[in-house]
Structure of Glutathione-disulfide reductase:
Amino acid sequence: MSADAAYDFDLFVIGAGSGGVRAARMAAATGARVAVAEDRYLGGTCVNVGCVPKKLYSYAAHFHDSFDDAAGFGWQLASPATFDWPTLRDNKTSEIKRLNGIYQRMLEGAGVTLFNARARVVDPHTVTLTNADGEVSVSAEKILLATGGWPWVPEFPGSDLTLTSNQVFDLDSFPERFLVLGGGYIAVEFASIFNGLGSETHLIYRGDLLLKGFDQEVREFTCDEMAKKGVNLHFSANIARIERKEGALQVELTTGETLEVDAVLAATGRKANTSGLGIDVLGIELNSEGKLPVNERYETQVPSILALGDLIAGPELTPVALAEAMQLVDIHFHKKTPRPLDYDTIPTAVFCHPNIGTVGLSEEAAREKFSKIRVYRTDFRAMKHTLSGSQERMLMKLIVDDASDVVVGAHMVGEEAGELIQGIAIAVRAGLTKEDFDRTVGIHPTGAEEFVTMRTPARY
Ligand code: NDP
């Protein structure tokens, strides 16, 4: 891209999260003059208060089961295992600092100018930057809004006593009794984490089954497995009020039940982080979900202002923001014709215990879309648990369009489901048929081989 001297930069990115950093680096690699403004932490939610620390804590929580499982294989622990929260928390913080440094070096190495400042858009080509040193204005041919999302908490008496996922990683002391409100990704992941780390854990959900939108059988199976591991699930319930009493939190539920806990996490969804960005001044309107409408070139109603990731419609997932960033750079800096992302076959994992991995359509969605489907499913105790004594079970499921034989959905609940479903997602994305799955030789002995050995439909 040729530098346009009329502006200070060719691209100004607001927000150094997954999407913003990827777009900045890729655009800079084309020779464009790129700047990024960030006033919080490099790497955004994913690196600092999302995917990365969550996965580290999930690993920590899995050790609980591993210690129990080891005995049947002959291992004897010298004394009962104990867990030290500050060690986990502080090691996590060191790792994140290391990643923040990597992000900074990646941006600098790519030739991106980094502003440690709060950015506000003041006209279609100008951004003002504010920090302790004062305020400056810079101009750019294009401005990319990449400020992601922010936790949202409903208001109820005592809602200010709840934590969000922004704070829960850094608690001063370990909550021996932990309560999470919500039934989505963050709720089930943190219920599993604190349960695994040893807290008495309660999950409060207003609906009657967790993880709305996922395959029904996956949801039911996950609930059973989480309950087996000791998470106390309270359905058709909400929090009526929270009061602090002698260091503890008294949580009154809408069912009349009262629970005393040490920490309450509100995992009640996230909203696009648009406050203070200045877009209202430019006449850019948000849709009914508070997201920024964009066209297939990621342009907002003001064409020089672009947006991606959690600010726009679509799944709020890091890999989606990364894919959008690369596509945006292809369109605006490599001048390629937009090729819309295939949002239908985005695989996802939920790191509850056991994990969920899923790609494509749920059984229910496939039934609505196709006149006839075949459902292949199996659930079993993994070989490891013949000796461990654990009662944990695994679920695997393939959904097939009967007319074309194409596998339109694959679902799994079980150990390392995310690792496994990533490979299956290539097959589903490629539109392979059940016959292709059947002709694939299994790997023995694994749980994964079930995905290529299920032969008889469980139902149509
Ligand atoms: P989700 O949208 O997944 O879940 C929000 C939950 O809060 C839902 O169960 C919802 O209930 C409930 N809720 C909403 N409003 C209220 C209310 N007023 N009172 C009580 N409950 C309420 O959001 P999360 O916060 O869990 O996560 C945000 C996003 O982050 C996810 O959607 C996901 O895209 C992403 N994420 C991805 C992860 C991964 O890839 N593994 C991990 C963590 C987050 P209802 O279902 O009835 O609407």
The mean pLDDT is 97. Residues 154, 181-187, 189, 206-207, 212, 238, 267-270, 315-317, 348-351 surround NDP (CB under 6 Å). The radius of gyration is 24 Å. The first helix runs from residue 18 to 28.
